[in-house]
Amino acid sequence: MFSTGRGGKPLEEPRRISVGMVGAGIMAKAHSIAMAAMPMLFWPPPALLERKLLADVGLKSAEEASLRYGYSAFTDRWQDIIEDEAIEAVHIVTPPDSHAEISIAAAKAGKHILCEKPLARNPEEALSMLKAAEEAGVVHQVAFNYRKLPAVELAKRYIADGAIGRVLRFKGSFLCGGYDPNMPFRWEYRKAVAGGGTLTNLGSHVIDLARYLAGEITEVNGALRTYVHERPVFADNVEYFREKVDVDDETSFAMRFDTGATGLIEATNSAWGRSTFITFEVYGTEGSLAFNYNNREQLQVCFAKDPAERRGFQTIDLGPQHPYGHGLWQSPQIGVGFSELKSIEAYDFYRAIRDNSAAIPSFFDGYRTACVCAAVMRSAKTMSWESTT
Going along 28-125, which residue ranges are E strands? Predict the structure, then answer.
């Protein structure tokens, strides 16, 4: 017991879990904010998190990030997190080429794993991670955080309840950026590290939403396009040379689902005027759903059963009565931002640990998304339909 509630009744202290963070970049910031904010939003929380150890390839960056993000210690060896028996959960926020090695080691050490997306560079790596986690019996979750949007969860409930009938079609997009050949080269532009370009970085989020809302994707027919084939490498604000880009800047593909539904997805980093422009539309036999991340506290719904003179899209403002609303802000006008989504993600992950249940989305979802991405890559070469199995 750690405090006294009203009437002198003691309040039961939530379980404490020591956490290790592998990586010191922008996602380390996002996950750390989520860990700190999670009990402030969702009380009582499934656990109180102790940010114990942060690891990064550079000792200086690890030290700075540990101070900035509230970790007790830092190291330049991710193996130190694996070897620390007091650490129960590991957040992996490194580039995709290291996900498999770190995740498999963490699983073998009996640690629960929350890994950033894409889960791996290819289906084979993703499957090895899934098998290791399942064999170890640890909780495993992939960070498709947009699935945690209250609007997405509400859309899922409408579909599960049969409110729009049988799903016929899904259409989704993730558009951002702008055509800029002078954007500096980053690891995201190297396939050996990232596994792919816009398809795996942005498109994977929409693939996850499509699978969640419309069913398993069985076949794809798509295209990939690279607009900028070389990007500058700078040092001290001076361009030294240009590095070859071997991943896509844009993708679009058609889909077939195991439910009989069809669909389209597009993703690009070359869309001036768009910034995290995520949309989806789901059309069914009895109605439709539509969502735009720019208005993420709203879901558009249309029902065929409405009288003809009233039929059309209606707006539902998401609030306390909707999924995750009990922990979020009390008015849709306040807004749900990226930090809140990561906090929901952390809440679900640690709730699964507490309840000894499966986390969603799991490494299986990451694996199936990798299968879809690989099929799109094959389709872009064969110019034909490709199976995702």
Answer: 48-55, 73-75, 87-92, 112-115
DSSP conformation class of 7: G
The topology (CATH level 3) of 3-144 is: Rossmann fold (3.40.50)
Distances 217 to 141, 172, 349, 387 between C-alpha atoms, Å:
20, 14, 25, 9
Please give the model's pTM, rounded to 2 decimal places: 0.95
Structure tokens belonging to residue 187: 């690891």
Between CA 330 and CA 319 the distance in angstroms is 6
Contact 176, 274 (CB under 8 A): yes
- Which pLDDT value is given to residue 235? 80
pLDDT of the residue at 1: 46
Rounded to an integer, what distance in angstroms lies between the CA atom of residue 110 and that of residue 133?
9
* Site of tokens 């039929």: 311
Q: Which amino acid is at 250?
A: E
pLDDT value at residue 125: 98
Nearest to 74 by CA among 85, 90, 63: 63
Three-state SS letters, 85-104 = CCEEEEEECCCHHHHHHHHH
Between CA 162 and CA 236 the distance in angstroms is 58
Topology of domain 146-332+364-387, CATH: Dihydrodipicolinate Reductase; domain 2 (3.30.360)
Domain limits, CATH 3.30.360.10, in the chain: 146-332+364-387
* Order of all β-strands in the sheet with 87-92: 73-75, 48-55, 16-22, 87-92, 112-115, 140-142
Spatial distance between the Cα atoms of 314 and 317, rounded to a whole number of angstroms: 10
Q: What residue ranges of the chain have pLDDT lower than 50? A: 1, 4
Identify the burial level of 225 via C-beta atoms within 10 angstroms of its C-beta, where 0-12 means exposed, 13-18 middle and 19 or more buried.
Answer: middle
pLDDT (tens digit per residue) in 360-380: 999 999 999 999 999 999 999
What residues does 219 pair with on adjacent strands?
Answer: 256, 387
**pLDDT at res. 264:** 98
What gap in Å lies between CA 33 and CA 357, rounded to an integer?
Answer: 24
Please tell me the distance from the alpha carbon of residue 301 to that of residue 182, in angstroms, as a whole number: 42
Chain region(s) in the chain for CATH 3.40.50.720: 3-144
Give dist(CA 85, CA 104) in Å, integer: 16
Q: What is the pLDDT of residue 333?
A: 73
